[in-house]
Input
Amino acid sequence: MPNPQRIKLPLRSSNPALMMMASRRPTTASAALDTLLQRARQLCNEGIEPRLPIDRCLMALGPVLTFVANEPALHAEVALSREMCGAVLRIAEELQGKTPLAAKLRAPLTIVAPQSPRHGETLRTSALLLEAYRDSVRRVLKGPSNAGLRAEFGLGNSLSLSDGKQIADGIARFLLAAQRFPDCIGSAGLQPAQLIGLAAQERVLRALEADAERQSTAQDSRYRQRVLHLALEYFLERFQAALHLHLSQKQSRLTEGLSLLPSQTQRPLSRPRSGLASCQVTESGRLIFS
Output
């Protein structure tokens, strides 16, 4: 019989945002998936590392989901709702390279890593250059009669340093207008070399954005694998917390539930097996056990 203290999985974050989200029940499997991945990204960005081997977490998940489905005392727990159980199963399928049963959940899970220093610097430089050149043109296009030209150059559009595509599109719009209305560029005092440099910034920025998009679904992305792993561990931690909260008066069921959790001291299995072979999630978030 496992010792509950030995396999205890303490919650590793007191982030208020995580605790607030834990009180809200997602209404769909997709929403639950977004919520669980967001929590895992926050843990990852706080520097939290997975503690248990991924294969042990995957092996424990099937029995845990079955236990949750068969234990009415856990059904009101938001972190173990039908939608959250479906979400963690979808994450497990992704980690194992399995095709989900639900067609609407088959798209690869997109997990965008934090921007690299080069990416962030390119974003800031591109935005500063674009806004400086916009200001130059803005000074020569004052008055209501030039409202159309200002729109052509995108002078009324705001810029967000967190949106590289928006900045790149803003540069492209400005350069297109510069080709169409060279007199405005000349009056603004902008030189051809400056526009060439701005076009180069756009190309570099789009290349970095495209690479970040590829990495967000790449199976070999270390950040992506770490987030998926943390999402799995986080769910198991919430399962353990719910056991102590709802089954403290049912010692046999509490012990049974705790025995399903993976531990760092488990012996390797002599015969590999999958803990998820009999569990699938539907598009509505309903779990099917065979």
Remarks:
- Residues 222-246 form the longest helix (25 residues).
- The radius of gyration is 26 Å.
- The CA atoms of residues 55 and 274 lie 9 Å apart.
